[in-house]
Amino acid sequence: MKRYFLIIYVLLSYFIYAQLETAHWFFGNHAGLDFTSRSPIADTNGALYTHECCSSISDKNGNLLFYTDGSTVYNKNHSIMSNDTGLLGNSSSTQSGLIIPDPYTPTLYYIFSVHTNDISPTNSVGIHYSLVDMTLDSGNGAVISGKKIFLCLSMVYKKVLKILLQ
Fold it and tell me: Which top-rank group of organisms is this from (predicted)?
């Protein structure tokens, strides 16, 4: 009986698709990949130019929402998002911007950014977060004014995730 359930499970799992929040990647010199189909497709429309850090987010259907290098946020039209200045990330940080969806409000996203310009944490201005509301600017999203907040840690390293998990 267990064998039959295993066979049914395997056959049904072929028709199940994961959510596509990570379907778009932007990196490097205006490079990108679109994973909304089964095979990745090159996307050279991106506005991002970075050597190290980048983050992007799509909706559950794989539609691009925005992407960032921790300093500048670009909307789905590859234009600079409204109110995005002052994110305080640094393109030299290996993980300057990290996008986290708000677990209670599906239109809100947090961008955690860290600013450090070398391996030493003594040149850092700390870790910050900004709040993006996708209902603003006719659905293109905008960074909410006044929601660029210094969290803590005046001395941080080049990775946001390492800091958040400590």
Answer: Bacteria
Q: Is the pLDDT of residue 162 over 50?
A: no
**pLDDT bracket for residue 48 (50, 70, 90):** confident
Q: Is 26 exposed, middle or buried (0-12, 13-18, 19+ CB in 10 A)?
A: buried
In the block, tokens 């039959």 appear at 4
Query: What CA–CA distance (Å, rounded) separates 161 from 166?
Result: 9
Mean pLDDT calculated for residue range 35-54: 83
pLDDT digits 0-9 by tens, 8-30: 666 655 555 557 888 888 887 88
| Domain count within the chain | 1
Contacts of 29 (CB under 8 A, 6+ apart): 49
How far is Cα 61 from Cα 54, in angstroms, rounded to an integer? 21
Mean pLDDT of the chain: 76
Enclosing domain of residue 96? 2-165
Q: Which of 131, 121, 133, 128 has its CA nearest to residue 164?
A: 128
Residue located via tokens 């600079």? 80
